[in-house]
Amino acid sequence: MVACVVAAEHMCYLAEELARNAAYIGTPGKGILDVVASTDTIKKHLPSIRTDAESVEKGDAFFEILFTTPRALQYIRAVLVFEDTLCQNPLYGKPFLEVLNDAGVIPGIKIDKDETFAQDFAQRCQMLYEAGARGQHAIRQYAKVTELVLVTCFRALIYRDVMLEGTLLKLNMVTPGSYSPEVAPEVIAEHTVHALQRTLPTAVPAVVFSSGGQSEENVNLILAAMKKLEIKKPWAFSFSFGDDLHQSILQVWAGEKKNVEKAQKAFLVWWKANSEARAGDGSGIIWVLLLVVFIFLIVGFLFVLY
Length: 306
Known about the structure:
This protein is an alpha/beta fold. Helix content is 58%, strand content 9%. Helix 8 (185-199) links the parallel strand 4 and strand 5 (206-209).
């Protein structure tokens, strides 16, 4: 009986901590950095890498660039990594985990290393896409499908008594198909928020949006439009970046020590710009455009130099 009471108190403590962390990660204007797939991204964008050992070495160096960029972590609330990454030490000897903790960044660890299903699924999708199964649907159709998926997902979570206050929803925005006519950012914002209103429990503290293949400028405009909607939005809106951000920074770094400072500057400007844009007024869009020009000039300079 005593053991059961102690266990219940312990679970209550963990539940409170989980809820606090979820709300903290969903802070408006802050975001999530996803570096789970960075090693594969590095292999893809640095042709000079020929062995797995070189890949690991470059990966550690790339993580150091990201995690030790001065003032950058103030815009980040969580980092998604593999367990092995947290055990690594930057060149000056401070463990990555300690670097993140000191900056108030919560580490999220991917513990499932069996990616066979995900890889097979991605290959099948690519095969079907090349065969002609491509997105040509109206935005209303996408909204309806999104609502059905979210209802099914959260019905299952509630049935299994999952604590929704400790969860975050990572979601693409509701957009028309890639082969359908484009619509204004305000239209995407309205359909996305309406789909959430109809399906997402208010107990979920935040929705974390990914770019979903859209340009950063367009995503900024959509999120700014969401804030301006005069309808109920009981959740915080945050953002998550992965390979789309890594590719830009890798282009500047190019695996060379002499480019580390330039890469860190680009990383800081990127996060500052997106944080300001996601705060709601869209003013950070100008910074994003300037960053794109900056990266273009740096890459062009390196190409001429080599």
